[in-house]
Amino acid sequence: MKRGAVALLSPAGAVFAAVFAIPAVMLFVVSFWSVRSFKLSPDVSLAAWQRFFTEYWDLTLYTLLIGISTGVLCTVLGFIFAYAARFRAGRHGDLLMLATLVTLFGGYLVKIYAWKSILGADGLLNQALMLTGLTDAPLAFLIYSRSAVIIALVHFLLPFAILPIYASLRNVSDISLEAARDLGASTTQLLTRVILPQIQAGLFSAFAFSFLLAAGDYVTPMLLGGTSGSMLGQFVLLEFSTRFNWPAGSAMSFGLLLACFVVLGAAGYLMRMALRPRPA
Amino acid sequence: MIWRIVIVLFLLFMLGPILLVVLFSFGSNALIGFPMGSLTFAWYRELLGDSGFFDAFQTSIVVALATAILSTITGTLAAMGLMRLTPRPARTVLAALSLPVLLPPLVVAIAIVVLFVRGLGVGLGLPVVILGHVLVAQPFVILIVMARLARFDTASLDAARDLGATRWQAFRLVMLPQIASALVGAALVSAAISLDDFIIASFTIGGGNTVSTFVWGKMRTTLDPSINAIATVLLVMTIGLSALALRLARYRE
Question: Which of B4, B8, B9, B18 to mutate to test the interface with A (most CBs of A within 10 A)?
């Protein structure tokens, strides 16, 4: 029985090992190598990690901040949308989920390009603002800022938040809601004590997905972030490509992952505390 | 009433930017902005004549097709394997196999490059792109197929075996026809994931282009209006594939 399972799992496991597990281990090892005049040499050096902690700690914090903002926005907005699809849209619920899938598969680069066209100096939003006379010159701060990056990331990641929340909302039985209402629960109580505790897992996956993918992104800040909206991923890329400092890039990758898992741990703890059962 | 407004605002935010791109792919003005100019198919005609786009398109199709086939095989076998395990180890293995989806694609892509270029000394290229896509597509296949297998009645397999079918015959003649639509759905989702990926492809392709890396080249240099047309083509393909997959797999989550 067990043996059959191992055999069946081995092709997927082989792919996993060849292009993920072994490369990840190798990447980790490389973070301790040293690099001199663009030549990589196997070594046991902490230089790359030191560089991460001294030169990139502030950028890492900003990156986490963008990730957390995106994650929180996606989770809250995702909940509102999924709630509407599950309880308020009636027959149209499926249609809303179809719209979610369209957004999900709308094309990663295409979405960034679309936001660039909307928020740019001669973009649609500025045109609209000037046309309505709200401003007489294009607002330059719309694009190339941290908020532009967050808007585009929320747009890209909202479907990743909606889907797990909707999936767990579908498991919330109408009976439990009716029971709570019959027992005199207010709408707020219904939300905080009946619905939210039941969908904790979905809410956490929503936050985890949107936070992790936002914090690790580099294309969005590259095209929409300018200098004020830079993120660590761009510099990982820079260290790997132009500067040819693979150890630094590796240390930064793992440093970012480590920091992300700390944030996720804290988020999980906060969510459990906020939604724990309380005496009335 | 208030919910209706909320939903409309959401749909505007989610679909608006995508619809804009589609709309402007038919406008004669070079950039997104009003007035959009007259209706034209010029950007699409330009694409047809662009050999760079044509090559990229072909490459994308090859990669998506290979990814769909391979990840459906590895993912389906893994799903069948996971069904044989007890829930606890099954959850752990599934979580591990899903890890590549959760981590930044940048890190996954860089790790692949480090191993293949420095560790193994083999070059990059389409096989590496395909492997990378299988890696991120197979967790979705596993989830879809496991959802289908959970509703599958294994008694019919036992019956087939009792009546003298070999293991292979029982799988081929009894199980496969019943789960076929879920497999096709999973394959289509894999193809859509492959078509949409930019980061892994851009790192591991070595030379040449997929449609995504081709678009990237255009995005970096100028605001090229043919991007709108390419984006629309890509959109129709990925959304078409996933809508088809949704119908076939009847898989909502």
Answer: B18
**Average pLDDT value for residue range B200-217:** 87
A237 at interface of B, judged by CB pairs closer than 8 A: yes
pTM: 0.88
Q: Which residues 134-153 of chain A have a CB within 8 Å of chain B?
A: none
Query: Would an 8 Å CB–CB cutoff place A88 in contact with chain B?
Result: yes
DSSP A90-113: GGGHHHHHHHHHHHHTS-HHHHHH
- All residues at 6 or more sequence positions from B180 whose CB lies less than 8 Å from its CB, including other chains: none
- How would residue A124 be classed by pLDDT, with cut points 50, 70 and 90? confident
Look at B132 and A19 and tell me if their CB atoms are within 8 Å.
Answer: yes
Beta bridge mates, A35: A40
Q: Decide if B202 is inside a domain.
A: yes
Distance (Å, rounded) from C-alpha B148 to C-alpha B144? 6
Q: Collapse the DSSP code of B112 into the 3-class scheme (helix H, G, I; strand E, B; otherwise coil) and give the result.
A: helix
A49-274 folds as MetI-like fold (1.10.3720)
Domain span at B102: 53-251
